[in-house]
Prior knowledge:
Elements: E1 5-14, E2 23-37, E3 42-45, H1 56-61, E4 70-76, H2 86-102, H3 111-122, H4 125-133, E5 136-140, E6 143-147, E7 153-160, H5 166-171, H6 179-198, H7 201-207, H8 214-217, H9 222-230, E8 238-241, E9 248-253, H10 257-268, E10 272-276, E11 285-288
Parallel strand pairs: 3-4
Antiparallel strand pairs: 1-2, 1-11, 2-4, 2-5, 5-6, 7-9, 7-10, 8-9
Helix pairs in contact: 2-3, 2-4, 3-4, 6-7
Amino acid sequence: xxxxVTVRVPASSANLGPGFDCFAAALGLFLxxxxxxAAGFEVVTALDxxxxxxxxxxxxxxxxxxxDGLRFTMRSEIPMSGGLGSSAAAVVAGLLAxxxxxxxxxxxxxxxxxxxxxxxxxxxxxxxxxxxxGGIVIYADGAVVRLDPPDGLEALLVIPxxxxxxxxxxxxxPALVPLADAxxxxxxxxxxxxxxxxxxxELVARGLHDRLHEPxxxxxxxxxxxxxxxxxxxxxxxxxxxxxxxxxxxxVETGANxxxxxxxxxxxxxxxxxxxxxxxxxxxxVALSGSPAAG
Length: 295
């Protein structure tokens, strides 16, 4: 008999420069959700999130299974703001837990079903796709193409102490963009995907340039924008703004990590934290109580 379920979901960074609203990468920071029988409904967490049925993970869970008589215990390494997919991770965790308990020993629904429902709840299918599948994903027309992170590629995060509201970041985008900028993003997105697929980090570095969203939002996080632009001069392959910002995802070649981290820490002193966060090949994992983890 199933007594409970545990779900572990990675953080995610969306856009990846030229891939606005369609590229994302899973990162090695995790949210964990335990759901277990209890005397009554309860949310247990040290996180600054609702402890009632308004909790995002619980809301997602209840799309598939009642929350009555269950205790939801949440832990997370993912910053709650900054563009690292904390909401997507919570939604995915709740849906996968609900699906597994609704189906007892077998999951209910297909990955595509979970992706569509999670995207409808959370609103960011790129983050959701990376959280579910791991690796680096391209989301297009409701489907996902996944790439393994190439060998020799590492990541550093520069996480500012002050957040930027996603609605403000969305409002900063123009309704129309110049044709030359759209062409440039097509070219750079192609270079980035080709570099990731082939393991050519020089192509990856050439592909980390955007003209559709980052320039229009730079005034919302000027220090993040300046740091991202300076990343190659600090020894990194390049840098992208994570999601709506203001976190900076710094792309680093293995061997340069320590030196780049030190340089970033010096630049970010007083306004941001530098954290390592590997590109995560694995996506969300689900385990029934007393059973081994299963994707």
